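Figure 2 data, in text form.
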Amino acid sequence: MLISCPICKNREKKILIWNKPIRSGKNIWTKKLHKIFWCTKCDLRFAQNFNYNLQDNKLFRKLYDGSNTVKKYKSFNKKREKFKLDKIKKILNFKNKIILESNCGAATNLDFLKREAKLTVGLDSDIYKDYVLKKHSFFNSIKKIRKEKLKFDIILSLAEIEHQTDVLKFIRDLKEILKKKGYLVFRIPNYNNVYLNLLGNKFLKYDFRTSHNYYFSEKSCDFLFQKMGLNTIYKNGLQEYSINHLIEFLKKGKRVKKYPEIIDKKVSNDISNNIEHNMISTSLIYILQKKRI
């Protein structure tokens, strides 16, 4: 059976790069083999069989984070999300803007932005509704946002594109609620990162997982956003782990939680900045606008 690339729809230029178990939790792997393909036309890697439970955070966060409570979200994500947001705020001005965060969870980013923004809106599962509504507006679907005829100056999507099934529809839906001169901001895990470049399959053993349907690179992102009628205003790497973490991973050849501080913070940050500049960081940041017709 011929399988089409979900982005470029090519049926010919694909290579099977994985046919082994993949990670299904913390140091847990599936018993079944999972196939992952590489489209050599647009450079996308994708699972043969998509996981359709990844867009419902009531299920997703309980399964992959251990809990879907507000407390768990904040303990696991608050520091990580602030790191992403601080990088983005160096590029974009959020003052007096109408902001949507898709996949907002317990709205830690919206909390950080509340004082300077004109309006902050969260989009996620109803399990977070009551909590988010204490400080922000809330929707559980883009359909309901469209019904209210809301348009946004800035839309943040910082931890979800890799979980989608129909990524083209996902981007179309976000574009539809973006203002004419608005900004769409993605943080995207980067397949071609420094860990893969140094460790190869030893890293992929941990990176390929049931919680990701897609594995993007800079090339596949460029292709996708061009296809979807978006101009790239800014792109850069985002290195979310310290160089000391990388060194310990290299030493042990597996995921690590604790690691010694061999390199001081300033040197580690300088190396991370170079990794980001060369787009081999663990994630990528894209800031996009609609193409003007």
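Caption note: The chain has one domain: 53-213+220-290.
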